[in-house]
Amino acid sequence: VQLQASGGGLVQAGGSLRLSCAVSGRTFSSNVMGWFRQAPGKEREFVAGIARSGGRPVYADSVKGRFTISRDNAENMVYLQMNSLKTEDTAVYYCATGAGMVVTTTPLLYNNWGQGTKVTVSS
Q: What is the rounded CA–CA span in Å between residue 13 and residue 121?
C-alpha cells in the first residue's frame, strides 16, 4: 500500500487549506482512513478519521468545527479540508490506513502511512 499526501503549504491564520491523500496498492474502500499531525518536538496526534462508508467521521476536539475529512472511494482519495487555521495547527500532516474496521485515534492501529505534507500557519 502506498499513500501520497499533498496540499500543504504556508497560510496565514484564519485561512484554509485542503490536503489530499492518494492511496494505491489495495482495495481502498475497505479501509478506515485517518489524518494525523506532528508538530516539532511533539508526538504524532490524531486529527480526523473516517470509516470506509464515509459516515460518522471522528475529529480531535482541537479541530472540530474547523476541519472536515472526506473520501472518494471511486478515486481512492481522502481529503482534509482545513478552515479557520490557527498557528497551533502548524505541523506535518500524515494520512494513514487503519488496520481495523472502526475509526480509532491511536496511531499504532494504523498500519500504512504516507510521507507527510507540511502545513505552516503564520500569525
A: 6
pLDDT, one tens digit per residue, over 30-84 is 689 999 999 999 999 999 999 988 778 999 999 999 999 999 988 999 999 999 9
User: C-alpha grid cell for residue 82?
Assistant: 482545513
- CA end-to-end distance (rounded Å), the chain: 37
Phi, psi of 40 (to 5 degrees): -55, 130
Residue with cell 500557519: 121
- Using only the alpha carbons of the chain, give its radius of gyration: 13
pLDDT in tens, 74-114: 899 999 999 999 999 999 999 999 887 889 999 999 989 99
80: nearest Cα among 106, 101, 59, 108 = 59
Burial of 45 (0-12, 13-18, 19+ CB in 10 A): middle
